[in-house]
Design goal:
CATH topology of the largest domain: Rossmann fold
Number of helices: 13
CATH superfamily of the largest domain: Methylesterase CheB, C-terminal domain
Shape: elongated
Strand content: 15-25%
CATH class of the largest domain: Alpha Beta
Helix content: 25-40%
Largest sheet: 7 strands, parallel
Radius of gyration: 20 Å
Number of strands: 14
Distance between the termini: 55 Å
CATH architecture of the largest domain: 3-Layer(aba) Sandwich
Length: 358
């Protein structure tokens, strides 16, 4: 049976710089899965155009005259709720904070833009722009379903809490949609969950600094970007800093963070796979892995190693994931102890601790 052609993702580009709009438009048009249907120089114009052009995805700059991206966001969500909005900003701490605030207000994802003089030459930015646009726009939904989603969605496996070990570490992987998922999960985590928590979230430097601050506020637990040699402590959260892989290692009688800028894995640095592999090596069956929303399949190989050691692997379900790529890959690998809606994962983790204690 021949495949039904997929309609291209309809995109609106909103940026006050004509040069940047042109560069982003050319990058998007280089992929035949994407159609640029509108180009706007400020948020006010975008709000007017969105219902007429009906974009699937809006690339929204933060810093613009007349109406900036954050001010335009609620108007765009109201004018054309069907669109997924990707906030785009240069790498400054202020813009990172604004981008994360935008995610809490309804934006779907973010992109860190190089400066305009480097934008056209940045292959990493072009790849991220195209992949996020296609994934969020849904043009590849059918292809993705063949690749990562089984015909009958995997069902949650009831945990054997009564015989489970108390996890001595929780390792979390996430990407697209991850910042909000992390805040939800960690903000609802019971105080009874007292072990180190280590996280690899696909995110550039500067952004991870701000995300760590948000996680600390939401969770009530100390959370910082990991530093090389930093000791893991119960009840504390370490986040992989942007552009560094995070792994853990044993040093005398301590478990410490190890950072490296070795080659990206799955086009990512930080990558989830190196973190998960190191957790499996040190903790074996006493570990616990959680895979949250994200594009691609990063972390699946590392999760296999954790599962093979006898530790539980928990995946966020498709319905609550922004993109069911990473958790879908783990779910379809048949290695999950549970596949759960995001709001249920914190309680499930608490159950592992209570069950082990019982």
């Amino acid at each position: 049976m021949s495949a039904v052609p997929l309609a291209p993702v309809r995109v609106m580009v909103v940026d006050d710089s004509a040069v940047v709009r042109g560069l982003i438009t050319r990058m998007l048009k280089s992929d035949d899965r994407i159609e640029v249907v509108a180009s706007c120089s400020n948020g006010e114009m975008a709000i007017t155009q969105a219902p007429r052009k009906q974009p699937d995805v809006i690339i929204l700059d933060i810093e613009m005259p007349v109406m900036d991206g954050l001010a335009a966001l609620p108007g765009l969500l109201n004018a054309w709720p069907a669109a997924k909005i990707i906030m785009a900003s240069t790498l400054t701490q202020r813009n990172a904070a604004v981008s994360l605030r935008a995610l809490s207000l309804g934006a779907t994802d973010y992109l860190a833009k190089p400066t305009s003089d480097k934008l056209g030459a940045s292959e990493n930015f072009r790849r991220d722009l195209v992949e996020k646009t296609v994934a969020l726009g849904g043009a590849n939904a059918r292809a993705t379903s063949k690749r990562t989603v089984v015909t009958l969605p995997p069902k949650p496996v009831a945990p054997r809490i009564g015989s489970a070990r108390r996890p001595r570490i929780i390792a979390i992987g996430s990407s697209t949609g991850g910042p909000q998922a992390l805040l939800t999960l960690l903000g609802n985590l019971s105080p009874s969950v007292q072990c180190p928590i280590v996280i690899a979230q696909h995110m550039p430097a500067t952004f991870t600094t701000v995300l760590a601050q948000h996680i600390a506020r939401a969770s009530g637990r100390p959370c910082v970007e990991a530093e090389d040699g930093m000791e893991l402590r119960a009840g504390h959260i370490l986040l992989a800093p942007g552009d560094y892989h995070l792994q853990i290692a044993r040093e005398m009688d301590r478990t410490v963070a190890r950072l490296s800028q070795s080659a990206p894995e799955n086009f990512c640095r930080p990558s989830v796979d190196p973190l998960f592999r190191s957790v499996a090596q040190l903790y074996g069956a006493d570990a616990c892995a959680v895979m949250l929303t994200g594009m691609g399949s990063d972390g699946c190989n590392g999760a296999r190693v954790i599962a093979a050691a006898g530790a539980p692997v928990i995946a966020q379900d498709e319905a609550t994931s922004v993109v069911w790529g990473m958790p879908g890959a783990v779910a379809n690998a048949g290695i999950c102890s549970a596949i759960l809606p995001l709001p249920m994962i914190a309680g499930h983790l608490a159950g592992l601790f209570q069950g082990a204690a019982a």
